[in-house]
Amino acid sequence: MLRHARVVADEEVLSGGSVSHVVRVGNTVRRPAGPWTSSVHALLRHLESVNYAFAPRVLGVDEVGREVLTFLSGTPMMRPWPEGLRELDVLDQVGQALRLLADSVASFMPPHDAHWQAPTPGRTGSVRHGDVGPWNTIFDDARLAGFIDWDFAEPAPRLWDLAQAAWYFVPLRPEALGWRAAGFAEAPDLAVRLARLCDAFGERAEVVLDELMDVQQLELQRTQSLGGRGLQPWKLFLDRGDIDELQQEIDWLRDHRGRLVSHRYGTYRSL
Fold it and tell me: Which domain covers residue 14, as residue numbers?
């Protein structure tokens, strides 16, 4: 059952998101709730029960129906990334945290009446965060504090969070959308960056890239179908032209795949 928290007048609007209105009240975050919120809270409470450190804790809902979560101290990794967040160590931290997440959700039993915002029919095996990107990743200086905005959590293959992280953290995108927008002065070695992320998780890059191709196709299909039906936030994505951008990224990954798997790996290093 969702617990109720008192509404406090002193609210600070948190920037960075394009989908929902999020505010900070003291050491809490208040976000609009939806039909999926109870299922997401069940997931977050499970992560708390197994001591997963990189997710906010659920405090309930407030008097106006917003979910209430603990505030993760730090700042989201918005572009252009600060110099310290362009280092390879960031990929180590993200890969290790996602490995711990994949292990932590293995024992999660969703509610029998679970409702997810946009579940993928037939693609299960695990549960994912669903929107792993720098914008949803909080760093305190150069140390990973955690992942926020779990509204797109859903049953999905085990590697889909890692694949999405490779897409946006390496980043595996065309130059203008990728390393230039991230703040690099010159092109980084994307094969090395991909290797560091995959090594930290303990998976081969070629396997992750196969999963990423599936994730990209899913995002394209969702934007077309759900956006075409007027459902948010996919209608927003459709209206702003994400279809063309997604197709460019799919084509870029197909063209660069061979060069991205040319790096050898070390061994998995746990946190």
Answer: 4-70
Count of helices and strands (H, E) across the chain: 8, 11
Segment (H or E) for 162: helix 160-169
Specify whether the CB–CB gap between 61 and 2 falls below 8 A. Answer: yes
Same domain, yes or no: 107 and 65: no
Q: Which of left, alpha, beta for 146 (phi over 0: left; psi -120 to 50: alpha)? A: left
Q: Over the chain (271 residues), what is each successive 10-residue block's mean pLDDT? A: 50 69 94 96 98 98 96 96 97 98 97 89 85 97 96 96 98 98 97 97 97 96 95 95 97 96 52 45
CB 87 within 8 A of CB 96: no
Answer yes or no: do 225 and 186 share one domain.
yes
CA distance 157 to 154: 10
Domain with residue 42: its CATH number is 3.30.200
Cβ-based neighbour number of residue 27 at 10 Å: 10
Among 67, 224, 61, 214, smallest CA distance to 128 is for: 214
- Report how many domains make up the chain: 2
CB-CB contact of 204 with 265 (8 Å): yes
Closest CA to 33 of 59, 10, 72, 54: 59
Q: Which helix (H) or strand (E) holds 245?
A: helix 242-260
- Phi, psi angle pair for 34, to nearest 5°: -140, 180
Which residues on neighbouring strands pair with residue 201, listed in sequence order?
Answer: none
Give the CA dihedral 234, 237, 239, 240, nearest 10 degrees: 170
Interhelix angle 242-260/190-201, rounded to 10 degrees, is 90
Is 208 domain-assigned? yes
Which pair of tokens denotes residue 153?
């959590």
